[in-house]
Amino acid sequence: MPFGHWAFEHINALYEAGYVSGCSAEPRLYCPERILTRAESSVFVLRGKYGTISDPPYPPPDTPTFSDVAKSYWGYGWIESLWTDGFTAGCWTDPLMYCPLSQHTRAEGSVFFLRVKNDVDYTPPTPTGIFGDVDLEAWYAGWVEAAYNQGILPACQDD
């Protein structure tokens, strides 16, 4: 990653602390502009909760919880641990799916990190409409407002 990149210091600090490893070992790359998948995010969330762990915090179950995450998938243990801790309900309910290759949205990140910070039973306050691009009826409205108000995620554009 170029030294002048706006996130260089933040990413380097996360790397030095053992929270991230990047997108390539040889050559060492971070790929800061690439969007995370939900599977990759499961690792971030659990390291946010447990620190610089190199393996999932729980042994993976013999039977997959999610119909779209095979035991042979690299993220299986991480995703199952995310479920065990109550940080995710998946992306679909019938059948229960996680959507590991889908992009991880800022709304989903709000839920994950508010639960890490405040506990898995956390429920955000009723949204008030502070964002012009978030419908008050959207499932994530309260989550993104709470993440913003608690300093977890900045607004995506300053006006």
TrEMBL record:
InterPro entries assigned: SLH_dom
Domain SLH: 1-59, 62-127
Protein name, UniProt field: SLH domain-containing protein
Organism: marine sediment metagenome
Taxon lineage: unclassified sequences, metagenomes, ecological metagenomes
